[in-house]
Every structure is written in structure tokens, then in C-alpha cells.
# Entry
Amino acid sequence: MNLDRIIAVRTSKTVFRDNDKVIKMFDQGYKKADVLNEALNQARVEETNLNIPKILEVTTYEKRWAIVYNYVEGVTLAEEMERHPEQLAEYLNLFVDLQIQMHNTKAPLLNALRDKLDRQIEQSDLSATIRYELRMRLESMPRHSKLCHGDFNPTNIIINKQGECTILDWSHVTIGNASADVARTYLLFWLEGKIDLANQYLNLYCEKTNTSKKYIQQWLSIVAAAQSIKGKEEEREFLLSWVNVVDYE
Amino acid sequence: MKITVCIGSSCHLKGARQVVEELQYLVAKNNLKDKIELAGTFCMGNCQNGVCVTMNNKNYSLSPTNTKTFFEEEVLTQI
# Structure
């Protein structure tokens, strides 16, 4: 395993390229169950017709877990959007079409998004009253079984010279209501400070799928509360502000 | 707080991998995973000296040997 060439860095993981392979190396504190779950989730999605990297191996290296994938040639859609702002509308269109295609894909053996959101809300620092309200709201939302990426954003899409797209990072994939996945993407744009892009994205998605914006917005408080349990402190404050603007009725 | 390490080829030759590993280790050891976000980026155009690192819009030039000092003197004092 050649770990010379780093292609991405996160707080708890490093991604290396070794010729035609990509090695995602987790730090020593990473739970084995989380690594294996990520690999299993991705393997389930590999069985669909979506274009995603294939897992070649799950292994350990110097007491660290690693997942080995095939390398996908191309650049991220985020880089393309940055480099060619004049083509932003075209890229956003591609992005939304890809997400809709993904939502229409069946992968019934994956975990339910509803269960994950419920668990995350319960683990959040919110008061018992707000947690209860959010869980009731979640319970009342329609039950679907759409494939939800959970971190669908332009940095997780690779586009090659032929314009073909590959969707990366399936560690948060579940099945559930697509509007929750859309609310998550909307929040991700916000967290990046790209508010105009977030609104353009939401408008386009709603237009293409004939979905009411208000319906997506109903998911925002639930998704923000669930996301608030994760790492970054400054994001947590922002996400909780989304939860608090909800008008509980 | 976000710390971004250059992972371009020039910084790679200067030890970017060791700098990344040391920072990951120090963040975990100091229980700062919810306060510090590590990220990588390609060439930041400031690679004349050591491995280019940015934090709070300020550029630093690191090597595997001074990463710990950088962490103690710059990172821990700004959290």
C-alpha cells in the first residue's frame, strides 16, 4: 500500500491515491463498526445502477482501518463551479438531475433515515420539550423509501471530461423521504456561506419535482437538529438557530 | 477553527503527509475534534519555504519538525 500521495484531508481521516486505487484511512480512534457500516452501505449502493466508486478492499494498516476503492478520474463539481461561474446554472441543473436520479433509485436493504434522525434528535443538546416536538414532527412526516445520500453536495460529485458524473462518499446513505435529503443539501450550502446558491438550488429542485418549498422547509428544523450532534462547534450554533426559528404548532 | 494544509506536489515533497498526520494526532490527543476542522487543499501559491498551512486567514510555513510547536503556540492559544 503506497501512502505517499494525499488527495484529501479531514480531521479523522486521510484519503490517499495509489495509482488506480484510492485509500480512505481512518484515524485510530475511529470505530470499527462505523468503518464496516460505511463499507456495507456503499456495497449496497454498488448494487444499483448509480455511478459510484467500487470498494475493492476493507483492511487495516498500522492499527488503522482503511477502505480501498477504485480511483475515479475527473474533478469535483465544486471545483468546476468555482472555475466556471458562467456555467453555474448548467452545473446546478446537472447537480439537481443527479440527485433526483439518485432519489428514484431503489436500495431497500439500507437503514431508514427516519430511525437515524430520531436517534440523532434524541442525542442532541436541545431541551426535552423541543426534542419531543421535533420527534412528533418527524413522526408525522410522510414515509418514503427514496435513496438519500445524506451529504449530497458538489464536493462529493466527480465529473470527467466526457461529462459523466460519479457520486462519492456514501457513509451517510439511508432510505427515506427525499425532501429530508434536499433539506440537508440546502443546509450544507448555507453552512458554506453560499446562500444564493442554496436558494437557487431549492427553487430548481422544487420546480423539477413539483414539490412545495414549504414542505422542504418543514424538514429543515428536523435535519438541522439531527446535524447539530456532529463535530464542528461553530456549525452547531448555526444549526441550532435553524431549530429555534421553527414555529411549533 | 479550520486548519488547511496544502497537499500539492511541492508541499508533498516538503513533508505535507507528516504534517497532516501530526496535526490529526495532536487534535485527537487534545480532544479538539469538535473545535478544529482539518482540511486539505491543492497549491496555495505560497510554497517557497515549508508546507503551506492556513488558519484564520493567516499563512504559516511548517515542517514535520516544527508542527508540534505550531500547534502549541498558535493553535492552542487561539481556541
Q: What stands out?
A: The interface with chain B takes residues 3-12, 14, 27-29, 231-233, 236 of chain A (CB under 8 Å). Strands of chain A lie at 5-9, 13-18, 21-26, 55-61, 64-70, 75-76, 146-148, 157-159, 165-167, 174-176. The longest helix of chain A spans residues 88-103.
